[in-house]
Structure formats: structure tokens, C-alpha cells
Automatic annotation (TrEMBL):
Protein name, as recorded: TetR/AcrR family transcriptional regulator
A Pfam short name: TetR
Ranges for domain HTH tetR-type: 2-62
GO MF term set: DNA binding
Taxonomic placement: Bacteria, Pseudomonadati, Bacteroidota, Cytophagia, Cytophagales
Keyword hit for Metal-binding: no
Keywords: DNA-binding
Gene3D superfamilies: Tetracycline Repressor, domain 2
Superkingdom field: Bacteria
Family annotation (SUPFAM superfamilies): Homeodomain-like
Presence of the UniProt keyword DNA-binding in the record: yes
DNA-binding region: 25-44
Source organism of the structure: Marinigracilibium pacificum
Length: 205
């Protein structure tokens, strides 16, 4: 990818995160970069092309973190550490999560991709929960439905925490991701064994 194209994407990400998709035009991005509108359009003819490219970059990074958790999982500490990185990646692209409904409605193929990604993340979380149970970190589920409900709750928080933070979080900005990580893990806490709770305390006292 060319240097100019990367600069456009980085500046667009910064501006979209700061002011939202609808408030920023391609011309505004070009002006902020100090390049001509024609130069920007050479790389991205429409603003939609920039949004789509950033969305695909985000999905690639998020998918990478989920797959790393799945393929390299060694212990509970590893799962906790990778989830912290995952939340940081999500926040890097916060404009997408703040406007996810609009983005998905605007791009039909993104909607299908998002649905497929959600299914894959559900499968990975299911495998991770099996790992935690088999290694004594979590108590077994009483039913498959209970397992499905917990996984859906975890995905719901991961999809929506940025919107909640944008409106309701009133703490230190530097603690924002940490706060929502704790909220995420509090969904898991009741299912942990004593071994799991000890692992939990290594990250959250």
C-alpha cells in the first residue's frame, strides 16, 4: 500500500473517531492532510471507499486477535492478556462501533461478513470456554443453552461497550478500556473455579 494511501487512512481514522463518519467529508480529510482533493480521489474515489477499507482493516485485526487466542491459548493469563489487546484494537476503530448499524445497512456485503464473523467468534469463544473448563478454570455449564447465553452476553458487551463508554463513562480516559474489560470479565466471574478466580486476581485484584 502506498504511503499516501496509508496517510489518508490514518488521517480518516483520526477524524472519524473524533467527529464521526457523517461529519467528515473526503475534502475535509484532504485538507487535514494538506493534499489535493484530486490526489485523495485517485486513491479513494468515494468516502465510502475509505470507510470500507478501514472496516476491513479493523476486521482483519480483530479476527487476528480472536484466532491468536484460539490457536495459541496456553493458560488463563494468556486469555486475559489477549482480550485486553482485543479491546484496545476495537477502541482504535471506535467510529465503526459507534456507527455500526449505519455502516452495516449501507454496505450489504459488510452485513453478511459481520454475521459470518460473529459466528466464527462465537465458535472461538465456545472452544475457549471448553479449554477453561477442561483445565479447571471454569465450572462446567449446566446446559448448552447456558453456555450459548454466556457467549452471546460476552459478544453483546464486546459489540456495544464503546457506545456505552462514549455516553456514560465519566472516569479517567486512561482507565476507560480497563473499566470495560472488568465489566466484560465480570460476566465470566460467577462461572470461575477457585483456580480461575486466582488467575483472575493476577489481572484484576
Amino acid at each position: 500500500m502506498s504511503t499516501t494511501k496509508n496517510r489518508i487512512l490514518n488521517k480518516a481514522l483520526e477524524l472519524f473517531n473524533e467527529k464521526g463518519i457523517s461529519s467528515i467529508s473526503s475534502k475535509a480529510i484532504a485538507e487535514a492532510l494538506g493534499i489535493s482533493y484530486g490526489n485523495l480521489c485517485y486513491h479513494f474515489p468515494r468516502k465510502d471507499d475509505i470507510v470500507l477499507e478501514l472496516y476491513l482493516n479493523m476486521q482483519e485485526e480483530v479476527d487476528g486477535e480472536f484466532k491468536l487466542m484460539h490457536e495459541e491459548v496456553m493458560n488463563f493469563d494468556f486469555v486475559l492478556d489477549r482480550l485486553k489487546v482485543l479491546f484496545s484494537v476495537m477502541y482504535k476503530y471506535k467510529f465503526i462501533y459507534l456507527g455500526i448499524t449505519k455502516v452495516i445497512r449501507h454496505f450489504d456485503h459488510i452485513k453478511q461478513h459481520a454475521i459470518e464473523q460473529d459466528r466464527e467468534h462465537k465458535r472461538i469463544l465456545s472452544d475457549l470456554s471448553d479449554f477453561l473448563i477442561n483445565n479447571g478454570y471454569m465450572n462446567p455449564f449446566q446446559s448448552e443453552k447456558q453456555k450459548d447465553m454466556l457467549i452471546r452476553s460476552l459478544l453483546l458487551v464486546s459489540h456495544s461497550w464503546i457506545s456505552d463508554a462514549e455516553v456514560f463513562y465519566d472516569g479517567d480516559e486512561n482507565d476507560k478500556i480497563e473499566y470495560y474489560m472488568r465489566l466484560f470479565f465480570n460476566l465470566i466471574r460467577p462461572s470461575l473455579t477457585d483456580k480461575g478466580k486466582m488467575g483472575f486476581k493476577k489481572v484484576y485484584v
